[in-house]
Amino acid sequence: MDGDAPGPPDRQFGEEGGRLSYGGYLCLPALLTQQQPQSEAPDELLFITIHQVYELWFKLLLHELEAARTAMFGGELWQARHLFQRVHAVERVLIEQVDVLETMTPQDFLEFRAKLAPASGFQSVQFRELEFLSGLKDERYLGSFRHASDAELSRLRRRLDEPTLWDAYLAALAQRGLPVSDDEIMASLLTVARDRRSHDDLWQLAEDLLTHDETTALWRMRHVQMVERQIGTKSGTGGSTGAPYLRGRARLHYFPLLWELRAWL
Ligand code: HEM
Ligand SMILES: N[C@@H](CC(=O)c1ccccc1NC=O)C(=O)O
């Protein structure tokens, strides 16, 4: 009955070289020593953990969106669509995960909130990179990165210079022979929408862009609800008005023409 013996066999699949372990592969000794609370407050570990998890997902989103942009420029629309499905799934997780932080009471947050200032989500380099890559370029935000490293600042500047996802979509339309000048773009979007027999791939890709835009807006709304629940009408540690500032940001769109298109259909 040796075959049924409990426990792992002597040598498992993939162990032939014997170099990798679970923790080594995932760099867990480094990862799991990076949570450093500034206070004794019990909920600060939750606060740090959730932000670190967001930043890891932001890193993956930047990677996948860059690849989707390359695929659109290369005319590989099926590949871009495949990557957008992953982006959407991650973005849904980003929204859901607000629930975890909302298990913290405002009283428990106040035990360590003062220690955080002037740090704030304002200073998330990767969040701003996602905005710039998606098409919402606003160089005034470079001013909020006075404490960023040179490497981070140059990443942000590079994102401001690089083509956006919208530029890549326009390239895909142009490859199909559709005009993309400012004056003609709405007509081209309408052509795609009305002739799905010829252009369904371009239509579905535009829908994927719109879903990326929509899930980001939903995250912004979810974030501001959480902010009102935690700090009410207080101003933010980053120096903004807090919830009113964030409510203004929740109205922003990455691809305004795709929303405007609805009115013309
Ligand atoms: C208790 C929870 C939270 C509170 C009270 C809060 C509060 C705020 C406030 C007031 C701002 C405006 C900037 C300022 O003046 O500080 C802000 C911005 C921001 N927060 Fe949070 N936040 C919370 C959790 C999170 C989490 C979990 C993330 C995930 C990464 C996050 C990401 C951001 C980002 C990216 C911005 C910049 C938004 C923009 O400029 O459009 N926040 N937050
Ligand atoms: N801006 C928040 C503090 C906060 O949430 C925060 C602080 C440091 C690092 C990230 C944060 N998250 C989002 O803004 C506040 O005003 O309470």
From TrEMBL:
Gene3D superfamilies named among the record's database cross-references: 1.20.58.480
InterPro entries: Trp/Indoleamine_2_3_dOase-like, Trp_2_3_dOase
Keyword entries, A-Z: Dioxygenase, Heme, Iron, Metal-binding, Oxidoreductase, Tryptophan catabolism
Residues engaged in binding substrate: F47, I48, T49, I50, H51, R113, T237
Cofactor(s) of this protein: heme
Any GO BP annotation: L-tryptophan catabolic process to acetyl-CoA
Transmembrane segments: none
Pathway assigned in UniProt: Amino-acid degradation; L-tryptophan degradation via kynurenine pathway; L-kynurenine from L-tryptophan: step 1/2
EC numbers for this chain: 1.13.11.11
Binding sites annotated in the UniProt record for heme: H223
Functional description taken from the UniProt entry: Heme-dependent dioxygenase that catalyzes the oxidative cleavage of the L-tryptophan (L-Trp) pyrrole ring and converts L-tryptophan to N-formyl-L-kynurenine. Catalyzes the oxidative cleavage of the indole moiety.
Subunit structure: Homotetramer.
HAMAP family: T23O
Family named by the database record: Belongs to the tryptophan 2,3-dioxygenase family.
Name under which the protein is recorded: Tryptophan 2,3-dioxygenase
Encoding gene per record: kynA
